[in-house]
Design a protein that fits this description.
The chain is mainly β. Helices cover 4% and strands 59% of the residues.
Length: 695
């Protein structure tokens, strides 16, 4: 409460000059080629930039709300990685490991999987969204999309204090301040979030601190970032399915985790970057190290039985270390030719130790099974090391005023080594499982854009591109898991994709209205899917899959302080040739739709944010019907989620109230990979009261 009094006093201080609207700037992106900071309209692919100011106008505090109205993207909050995490969907594929998450130019999650539970959306400058792979920029890391979260830089002068409280004991606080000393411009931000849910014994606490600093060194600029995240989660339980629908025997919001269950993450990252002119180009280098750990104690129902159901628990720890290095030259002085050339390396190593245990859970969800927190067993042990290296080059050429051609090529070397440390210590080796795979493979992209007309800020551009990408199979250090066939999880086949896209974008009404549309086709081989073998979760290659569809998006500022965004997509994601085991029987899935993939996805967001007086925002997200299972026997109805906020600005202070999921819809939004035929639901309605002070 004391901070609220401070905010109120600051707002009532003499000469409370209103916070001016942020100046109009040309948005730039870097999701397509390192070193080329270019407007989105120059890129021959469908890209979207959501400004940090837009997220603050809608008080967006997670990826789902921040990306509302972005075509083709649907983010399911929560999931197997805990209530602080999420499961994004691009191009009809809802897999948390099929896209690339980048934070301030560094792959967030390194060589393994996106670290979604520790991504922070406070003090954001912008979020860049690219559909499809980025085969030149980051190589063997993604297929269906790239999310680049860019935080405010060290030299950003904005000062901000934020405080909120709401439903289920939730609250959030942020302080972000710039300062200068010894020639260094610095920015420090710290935030704390406590999020509760209607689900029994479910919530999370997150502390995050970030320090960014930079200074000129001769003709160049040196920068450092230090970032720490601590996330303590009480996991929810997914809802079991029986036959074609979710079980009616299981109460809504029941939690079957043992008493005191947790899913705790720690992540420390340090980054250094340097940029200077060299050889007629701009030379940029970045190096980053991160250490992450996860402590796990949780459980899932094995079957639905009343009044007491069998359950399977997991206890273990996972430790990860990542090193990322990139250096490149960008020649951008020519008005017609831009060239980027460089090399990068991504190192990842991890160790998991733990095991599974059986217990019983009351089907009502209460009381929780009082097991106590057991010591970490050593039943399962695995070490994995990944080395992804690449030499890359990218050329953008404008042979005439209306034409832009782009081409990029990357030579990849990938190595993965996986083993049980007990086998390593004993000298025993299984000759049927080499445990190591090294590959050399090119990936690349070709694109073309034709400008039909331009009149000042107005324009019409048509584009097409082809992208070829691959990456080693996803690996999640699953404790107590196996591979298809029932053995210890080994190296699966690499995933490969060929992607084709055509589209158009236009700017109208003096540049205030932006429209873009694209059609895509992607053939994906050996995609990694979750499966179950003898009741044990496992990973397997899925054979051939095809993704195709269209996406439409609009971004409009019809008048000062009013911003509208909307998108619609039609996705058709299907198995082409995929034989999977169900109850030990092989089944051909050819022609079936992928589970949790809706044909129709749409969203819209609006924000009214004048310098003073009434402020308001609203957003609606629609997801059509989708099958809950690979055999397409359980069809879930479509749903719409409505959220809105209203508030008042006086001087430097803004007070507002926001409601999420106002219609209190609770549909299944993502499938568990650890609980067989179990699904996480959309979180229940919540209200938040917030105060923000900026100067």
């Amino acid at each position: 409460m004391s901070l609220l009094f401070v905010l109120a006093a600051a707002a009532a201080s003499p000469s409370p000059s209103p916070v001016p609207s942020p100046p109009t700037v040309v948005e730039v992106i870097e999701v397509t080629a390192k070193g080329l900071r270019e407007p989105p309209e120059n890129v021959p692919a469908m890209v979207t930039v959501v400004s940090g100011e837009e997220t603050r106008q809608r008080n967006a505090d997670d990826l789902r709300s921040a990306l509302a109205g972005v075509a083709g993207v649907d983010v399911a909050p929560g999931g197997d990685n805990g209530p602080a995490s999420s499961v994004p969907e691009f191009w009809g594929l809802k897999e948390f490991d099929a896209f690339l998450l980048v934070a301030d130019e560094v792959p967030w999650g390194g060589a393994f999987n996106p670290a979604l539970s520790t991504i922070d959306l406070q003090d954001v400058d912008r979020i860049e969204v690219l559909r499809g792979p980025a085969p030149v920029m980051y190589g063997a890391t993604s297929f269906v999309g790239v999310l680049h979260v860019v935080h405010r830089g060290a030299s950003d002068p904005a000062r901000e204090l934020f405080l909120s409280g709401g439903s289920f004991g939730s609250g959030r606080g942020l302080a972000a301040l710039p300062f200068s000393r010894g020639g260094f411009d610095s920015r420090i931000s710290a935030d704390f979030t406590k999020q509760g849910f209607r689900d029994d014994r479910t919530g999370f606490e997150r502390f995050h601190g970030r320090w960014r600093t930079t200074r000129a060194i001769g003709s160049g600029r040196l920068g450092f970032d230090l970032d720490f995240q601590g996330v303590n989660q009480e996991p929810a339980s997914p809802h079991p399915r029986e036959g074609g629908s979710l079980s009616t025997l299981v109460p809504l919001d029941a939690n079957y985790n043992p008493e005191g269950a947790f899913l705790d993450d720690r992540r420390l990252s340090a980054t250094a970057r340097y940029e200077r002119p060299a050889a007629g180009a701009t030379w940029s280098t970045i190096a980053s190290f991160s250490h992450a750990s996860r402590d796990i104690f949780r459980g899932f129902l094995s079957e639905v039985a009343s009044p007491v159901a069998p359950a399977r628990g997991i206890r273990g720890t996972v430790d990860l270390n990542d090193i990322y290095f990139d250096t490149h030259f960008a020649w951008t002085r020519s008005p017609r030719v831009q060239v980027v050339a460089g090399l990068d390396h991504l190192h990842g190593e991890g160790k998991a130790i733990g095991g599974a245990f059986d217990y019983e859970a009351n089907l009502s969800g209460a009381p929780a099974a009082p097991l106590g927190v057991p010591a970490v067993p050593d039943d399962d042990q695995v070490e994995d090391r990944r080395e992804f290296s690449g030499l890359y080059g990218f050329v953008a050429y404008e042979p005439a005023d209306r034409w832009r051609l782009e081409a990029g090529l990357r030579l990849n070397r990938t190595m993965e080594e996986r083993e049980d440390p007990r086998e390593k210590a004993s000298g025993i080796h299984n000759p049927d499982d080499p445990g190591e795979r090294t590959g050399f493979r090119p990936s690349g992209t070709v694109g073309v854009q034709w400008t039909a007309w331009t009149r000042g800020p107005e324009s019409l551009r048509l584009f097409a591109d082809y992208r070829n990408a691959f990456k080693p199979a996803a690996f999640d250090f699953g404790i107590g898991e196996g591979e298809e066939g029932g053995e210890e999880e080994g190296l699966l086949d690499p995933e490969t994709a060929n992607t084709y896209e055509v589209g158009a974008r236009t700017r109208l009404e003096g540049g205030r209205l932006g429209l873009q549309a694209s059609g895509f086709w992607m053939d994906l081989e050996n995609m990694v899917l979750a499966t179950t073998v003898n009741g044990v979760p496992a990973l397997t290659n899925s054979g051939s899959n095809r993704f195709k569809g269209i996406e439409l998006e609009a971004d409009w500022e019809p008048r000062a302080h009013l911003h509208l965004r909307g998108g619609y997509s039609y996705h058709d994601a299907r198995f082409v040739d995929s034989v999977q085991l169900f109850d030990g029987v092989p089944s051909q899935l050819a022609g079936n739709r992928l589970e949790m993939s809706a044909h129709h996805v749409a969203g819209a967001a609006a924000a009214w944010a004048p310098d003073r007086g009434l402020v308001a925002s609203a957003q609606i997200q629609y997801v059509g019907s989708r099958y809950l299972d690979k055999r397409n026997t359980a069809l879930a109805d479509g749903y719409a989620e409505l959220s809105a906020g209203i508030g008042w600005r006086r001087g430097r202070l803004e007070l507002r109230v926001d409601g999420r999921n106002l219609s209190d819809q609770r549909p299944p939004i993502s499938e568990s990979e650890l609980g067989d035929a179990q699904y996480y639901r959309l979180p229940a309605r919540r209200l938040d009261l917030a105060a923000r002070l900026r100067w």
